[in-house]
Write a structure and sequence with these properties.
The protein is mainly alpha-helical. It has helices spanning 3-19, 21-24, 30-43, 51-65. It is built from 4 helices and no strands.
């Protein structure tokens, strides 16, 4: 294989990488690393419920248990 073919092959590889860079950069690079690290940190988070949320849910449960009265509309 002579050197012009090697140069053409290298240029072809460069063109393919350049054309697909937007897809490749999602998996390789600093942004992808930051996203993986952030996802790993977020996986360890827990949701803490406040007393206001618990109170609102208990009120809603109590209201749902109350009997209702509907008049006949004629």
């Amino acid at each position: 294989m002579s050197w012009p073919w090697i140069v053409l092959l290298a240029l072809a590889v460069g063109v393919v990488i350049g054309a697909e860079w937007s897809r490749v950069s999602a998996y390789v690079g600093a942004d992808a690393r930051r996203k993986r690290e952030r996802d790993k940190r977020k996986a360890s988070f827990t949701v803490i419920r406040s007393e206001e949320e618990e109170f609102a849910e208990s009120v809603q449960r109590d209201l749902d248990k109350l009997p209702t009265y509907e008049k006949d509309r004629r």
